[in-house]
Amino acid sequence: MDQIIKIDANQGTFDTSGNKSTIDIDIPAGLGNIDLSKSYVNIRTKCSIDIANATNEVANLNMEYKGAASGGNQNIHYPDTASLIVNAYMGSNKKGKLEDIRHVDILKTTLSAYRYNMAEQKNDVGQISGVQQAQMVRSLRINEINKIGTDSSRNTSNDIVIPLKNIFNICKAESYNTDAYGQTRIHLEAGFDKLKVLDAGLTAYTETVEGRTATSQQFAGFTVAAAQNGQPWDTLTSTALYKNAANIPFHVDQNISIAHSKNSGAGAVVQAVKNNLNISSITRNANDTITLGLNGGIYDQATGDVISAVVVTGNTNARSNDAVAIEKVEAVLYVNNSGEAAPASIPYTTYLSEEDTYTAALFISRLYHVPPACKNVYVMFFSDGIISGATNLAKYRFTVNNKEITPRSVSRDSPLHFDLIGQTFLNNGETPKSMRQVLYNTNSRITVTEAGQSCKMLAIPMPFSQQQQTLQLELDAVAGEVVGGHHILFYEVVKNM
Q1: Bridge partners of 400?
Q2: Residue 99 has what pLDDT?
Q3: How would DSSP label each residue in 34-97?
Q4: Could you give phi then psi for residue 424, rounded to 5 degrees?
Q5: Which CATH code fits 346-412+456-497?
Q6: In 10 A of CB 315, how many CB atoms?
Q7: Which residues, in sequence order, are CB contacts of 106 under 8 Å at separation 6+?
Q8: What residues does each domain of the chain span?
Q9: Is 332 helix (H, G, I), strand (E, B) or coil?
Q10: 41: nearest Cα among 106, 126, 137, 148
């Protein structure tokens, strides 16, 4: 049975203002052997949003991480939660500094485009957000949303889980001896200010349901019978058939907008928000239609009135005061109870970085000094926030100690480009799981193109040497454009504790 120890962050409060984003966690000496490979930082969050003229609304919310700087394509799914960390430090009283990594966000974001396949990305437990290409409607985990029945939906807290091994390579160690290493300090600077709330209740209700002809917003008309004369009508049945309940875009306690036509002419548009109407129940019928039960009457009609062109959507009234509350930050540590003695030393790799800013040009040639014991070099570009895009790059060349790594310039996205990346991963005993070089949109679904944002890097395995080496990097822009201007090199070096 696993034994865990929870340690709260030294700071008591956090927020998204940018002023309270520092996390300090002290792992005390005397805890025995800790399995850092299973341990993680847990960030408990709660999202909220105000919707004008809505009462008791439980919105289908999504959390966004605004890591992209571009204006139109920011709703990106980040498969590695370490993208939330800007800078990171780990050190112990007896061993000194273990790792000190700058720009963890761009490093881990870019590597994640190669490390995670789509099956892994669909698992959104402990994530900032999710990507669900197998569903027409996003079933988000931020709030507890009930799509069938009468049970109320609930506004709930959610955890963002950041495995320590995703931040620090030394945390891949399965046995970390706190008795021998003394107190250990973990210092993280988080990008809490980039966390935002998105209301997914603004789903595209005009999409056809499961490949049929009816859309989600279409509901059946009716003729008012004598028994209903003067009585409020409080149920609506869909035209669309839902073979898969996950594709229902409505939920209990959702505030909705309704429009209809009466008799043969266009009647007055009835907005449910004006009548404070919420969905109180959702029934899935035998023929796979759904019936919405409302907490009040839609309108009073006279006998014989013919109601048609009924359209139901989520309330589109103004949203305001969207907020992500950081309720708690803690480390969850797994104790290694195997009984095996901790190793006398722990070999690991860490990342040293060198940020370079210069004038973008048609051709760039830069010279760097690679530190000793370097295994791999990664080049990432500050082209869109923390997403490396290599904008306008046509080809490149690496030269190490005056020896060209490749016999010719490497065209970006060529087989040789992917081969170099594969060799770099193989040098770490890994295999890249995706070469699409894309971070997907969180709103990707089966009815739209697999949209996302390009995320690319340059990488080479280095000839291993205990001496400093020289590295020349040449960048060629596509015709008529300029390339570069700001990039960062990560040197992955071998250390031993």
Answers
A1: 403, 471
A2: 98
A3: EEEEEEEEEEEEEEEEEETT-SS----EEEEE----SSS---B--SSGGGGEEEEEEEETTTEE
A4: -65, -45
A5: 2.60.120.730
A6: 24
A7: 380, 382, 386, 387, 388, 488
A8: 203-314, 346-412+456-497
A9: strand
A10: 126
Note the pLDDT tens digit of each residue in 199-221: 766 666 888 888 788 999 999 98
CA distances from 347 to 27, 171, 189, 230 (A): 20, 11, 25, 80
The first and second tokens of residue 24, run together, are 């300090």
Q: What is the pLDDT of residues 4-62, one digit of tens each?
A: 999 999 999 999 999 999 999 999 999 999 999 999 999 999 999 888 777 778 888 88
Quote the Cα angle for 31-34-36, to 5°: 145
3-class state of residue 470 by DSSP: strand
Q: What is the 3-state secondary structure (H, E, C) of 414-448?
A: CHHHHHHHHHHHHCCCCCCCCCCCEEEECCCCCCC
Three-class SS of residue 374? strand
Q: In 3-state terms, what secondary structure has residue 192? A: helix
The ranges of the chain with pLDDT < 50 are 71-73, 265-275, 446-448
Distance of CA 25 to the CA centre of its chain: 24
Residue type, 225: A
> Token pair for residue 196?
């935002």
Task: Answer positive or negative: Cα dihedral of 475, 479, 482, 483.
Answer: negative
DSSP state of 179: H
Q: What is the pTM of this model?
A: 0.91
**One-letter amino acid identity for 319?**
R
Q: Which two tokens stand for residue 61?
A: 């919310």
CA distances from 277 to 29, 55, 269, 273, 295 (A): 58, 8, 15, 6, 6
The label of the residue with tokens 């540590």 reads 333
For 200, the token pair is 């997914």
Name which of 141, 137, 136, 147 is nearest 125 in CA terms. Answer: 141
* CA 186/CA 330 separation, integer angstroms: 11
Q: How far is the C-alpha of 412 from the C-alpha of 456, rounded, in Å? A: 9
Helices (H), 151-191: 164-167, 178-181
Q: For residue 493, give the nearest of 162, 171, 100, 111 by alpha carbon.
A: 100
SS3 77: coil
- The size of the chain, in residues, is 497
307 membership: H or E segment, kind and range: strand 306-314
